[in-house]
């Protein structure tokens, strides 16, 4: 019984510390917020995290049914589904938030930003670890799907609408379906049109399909020039 109350007190302290950091994350990362009161009262992402922190508290002391009930209440009011078994660090900012899903075995580091419609899900019915592990300072953009028991490294960014099915190293930017790394260690990969200053911006991400088409056009142009020179004449007809 003494151990139970010790765990109860410890989890209670951790819960309130992380809730405080969640509020600070809104103030630091959303230019639209004007006051602490607005951050606390008007952000469904924060409300979802509040329900999650309480549900996770009960989950950790093995009151699983109560945890799931609280989690479902939070989902009803916010449109954000976070399983109470997920492990979430400090300073998570869920912006807008509607239709965000975070699965049971998901692990999220500190200072992560998630936009509306993102899913951190599994790929099957197997038991055990089946959801992704998200590192620190990661940005997951609108509608992105990260599916499977792999790691997304620290400081990485997942572009809007991307479907990520395999490991992402630290300091990378991933876009497309399926997801492809287009920026690694803050450097553009070959044929990438990415800007250097990508951070929370979801517009300046590169388009891998456009990149492939540009590479093909460039290669075709080089081959045509080579053929014209070899024939010794210029043919205006496009083949």
TrEMBL record:
One of its GO terms (molecular function) is serine O-acetyltransferase activity. GO terms for biological process: cysteine biosynthetic process from serine. Belongs to the transferase hexapeptide repeat family. InterPro entries: Hexapep, LbH_SAT, Ser_AcTrfase_N, Ser_AcTrfase_N_sf, Ser_O-AcTrfase, Serine_acetyltransferase, Trimer_LpxA-like_sf. Residues 10-49 form the Serine acetyltransferase N-terminal domain. The keyword Amino-acid biosynthesis applies. Pfam families: Hexapep, SATase_N. PANTHER family: SERINE ACETYLTRANSFERASE. Pathway: Amino-acid biosynthesis; L-cysteine biosynthesis; L-cysteine from L-serine: step 1/2. It is found in: Cytoplasm. Keywords: Acyltransferase, Amino-acid biosynthesis, Cysteine biosynthesis, Cytoplasm, Repeat, Transferase. This is Serine acetyltransferase. GO terms for cellular component: cytoplasm. The gene is cysE. It catalyses: L-serine + acetyl-CoA = O-acetyl-L-serine + CoA. Its main location: cytoplasm. It comes from the Bacteria. The keyword Translocase does not apply. Its EC number is 2.3.1.30.
């Amino acid at each position: 019984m003494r151990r139970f109350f010790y765990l109860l007190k410890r989890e209670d302290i951790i819960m309130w510390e992380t809730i405080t950091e969640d509020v600070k994350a809104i103030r630091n990362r959303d230019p639209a917020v004007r006051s602490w009161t607005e951050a606390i009262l008007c952000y469904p992402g924060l409300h979802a995290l509040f329900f999650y922190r309480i549900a996770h508290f009960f989950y950790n002391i093995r009151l699983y049914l109560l945890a799931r009930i609280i989690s479902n209440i939070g989902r009803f009011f916010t449109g954000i589904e976070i399983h109470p078994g997920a492990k979430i660090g400090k300073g998570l900012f869920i912006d807008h938030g509607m239709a965000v899903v975070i699965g049971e075995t998901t692990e999220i580091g500190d200072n992560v930003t998630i936009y509306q419609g993102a899913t951190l899900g599994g790929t099957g019915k197997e038991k055990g670890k089946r959801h992704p592990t998200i590192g620190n300072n990661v940005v997951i953009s609108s509608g992105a799907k990260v599916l499977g028991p792999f790691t997304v490294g620290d400081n990485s960014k997942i572009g809007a609408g991307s479907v990520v099915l395999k490991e992402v190293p630290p300091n990378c930017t991933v876009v497309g379906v399926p997801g492809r790394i287009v920026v690694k260690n803050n450097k553009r990969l070959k044929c990438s049109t990415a800007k250097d200053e990508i951070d929370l911006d979801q517009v300046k991400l590169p388009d891998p399909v456009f990149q492939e088409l540009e590479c093909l056009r460039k290669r075709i142009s080089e081959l045509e020039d080579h053929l014209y020179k070899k024939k010794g004449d210029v043919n205006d007809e496009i083949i």
